[in-house]
Design goal:
Strand content: under 5%
Radius of gyration: 15 Å
Helix content: over 70%
Number of helices: 2
Length: about 60
């Protein structure tokens, strides 16, 4: 159960980072440093999400 909650939280954090990045793009323009940081955070969270999903399927916590 904890694994599913962690996956959901990381996914929601990715969506929040995506929304923040869109806001930075609209407000600051394409040369914004905050936009780059938002992208880096989103990529790190995507890697974490993939790792959690692989782990969940490996241990059987997410199977059927």
């Amino acid at each position: 159960m904890l694994l599913k909650v962690l996956i959901a939280l990381v996914f929601l954090a990715m969506l929040a980072s995506l929304a923040a990045g869109a806001g930075f793009l609209l407000r600051d323009g394409a040369t914004s440093r905050r936009l780059l940081v938002s992208l880096k955070v989103r990529v790190a969270m995507a890697a974490t999400l993939l790792a959690l999903l692989f782990y969940g399927f490996y241990v059987g916590g997410l199977a059927g």
